[in-house]
DNA sequence: AACGAAACCTACCGCGTTACAGGTAATGGA
DNA sequence: TCCATTACCTGTAACGCGGTAGGTTTCGTT
């Protein structure tokens, strides 16, 4: 089976890369991107730092893979989102602090000058705002409170999600993230 | 003038420290705390790295001074805040991206493990939520939309401010931070 | 004039960092 | 069986980092 074995090798390599990306997510959550050393990531998958560089030639390349991984992860078609699914997602997130912490840390770093993830986040947020505006329009039409348009409401929705994450990460016992998010949604529902 | 000159020396020293803190704010805005080197801060005030260590014996000590500086800055008695003043503050902030960037970067870093500013932010947000709840109560009493209490609304208010800051820092031309914040306040005013 | 402290500096240490160079063992296809 | 590729490793270069040690100059006080 010529192709079968070739596949096996490729699959194994791909699995290794995925394993590394997963480890990188963890280390970034713990130390941020700047604080995450290749050696620390490598150690977590049983490699030397130089062994890791065999899979990702530079640290930035690893970060790119991490970001792509996330893109793939929540690439749900925007049309399939509904507001109550957003609430469920927030609830789900509350059970996986690791990933939230990774991307909250990255988002914070990304506003600094010349950060390799800056472009990514700028583009992503532009796109997420668009998606959210579409979701809001599908759900409420133009009947949002105070004559708000979906386009003007979307940044608020996104801001609430992100802002709550920071408060929750810093002090999970004082902040009921899913509950607060539902409160916000209720605020939007008032106009209907 | 024995005491007068003594004061001059002390004042000059204090001024130097303030100058250093200001420089540190800038460098942290550009590179985050982990990425900010003492040498970079020192250079900005015309000192060597070791000369800076004469004023702040460790890097952490400098960070503490930076955080204290901020505390002092917005130590307005909570009772004097009003909701429309919050809107003004957001508007004012939109003209000073540097400081916002500093503390947005620090907030992002602070959720990582063992970050020296983590305790500070945890305590600060707890306190800010309390303040905001008081402000909301003074303004709206218990008549918030949907039967929301001030205590449950405060985290949302804080989250919107922080979340908008990130979106705005990443893409100032796409995000009207003060306008969006006013939109949110209008949402709260609906119930009155 | 003499002294003590403050305000710096030079020199240096030890460590951690990314990345490059080059070698080696295993693997799998021709 | 041979050979190329893959998957690592050791070694090392080159640098930046926070922090220490110890000296020197400046300055205010006595």
Provide a concise account of the structure shown.
Two copies of one chain form a homodimer. Chain A is mostly helical and 192 residues long. Chain A folds into two domains: 72 residues, Arc Repressor Mutant, subunit A, CATH 1.10.10; 119 residues, Tetracycline Repressor, domain 2 (Orthogonal Bundle).
What is the element string of chain A, with H for helices and E for strands? HHHHHHHHH
Within the CATH hierarchy, at the fold level, what is the topology of the largest domain in chain A? Tetracycline Repressor, domain 2
Structural category of chain A is mainly alpha
Number of strands of chain A: 0
Low-confidence stretches of chain A: 1-6
Beta-strand percentage of chain A? under 5%
Helix content percent band of chain A: over 70%
The helix tally of chain A amounts to 9
Distance between the termini of chain A: 62 Å
User: Judging from the principal axes of the Cα atoms, what is the shape of chain A?
Assistant: elongated
Q: Mean pLDDT score of chain A, rounded?
A: 92
Highest CATH level, the class of the largest domain in chain A: Mainly Alpha
């Amino acid at each position: 089976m010529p192709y079968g074995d070739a596949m096996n090798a490729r699959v194994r390599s791909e699995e290794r890369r995925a394993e590394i990306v997963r480890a990188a997510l963890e280390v970034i959550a713990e130390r941020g991107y700047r604080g995450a050393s290749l050696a620390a990531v490598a150690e977590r998958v049983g490699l030397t730092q130089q062994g890791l560089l065999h899979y990702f030639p530079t640290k930035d390349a690893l970060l790119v893979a991490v970001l792509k991984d996330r893109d793939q992860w929540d690439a749900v078609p925007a049309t399939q989102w509904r507001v109550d699914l957003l609430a469920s997602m927030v609830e789900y997130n509350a059970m996986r602090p690791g990933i939230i912490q990774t991307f909250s840390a990255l988002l914070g770093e990304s506003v600094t000058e010349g950060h390799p993830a800056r472009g990514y986040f700028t583009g992503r947020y532009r796109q997420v705002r668009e998606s959210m505006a579409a979701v809001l329009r599908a759900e409420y039409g133009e009947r949002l409170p105070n004559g708000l348009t979906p386009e003007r409401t979307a940044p608020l929705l996104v801001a609430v999600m992100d802002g709550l994450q920071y408060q929750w990460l810093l002090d999970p016992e004082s902040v009921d993230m899913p509950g607060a998010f539902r409160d916000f949604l209720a605020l939007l529902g008032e106009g209907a």
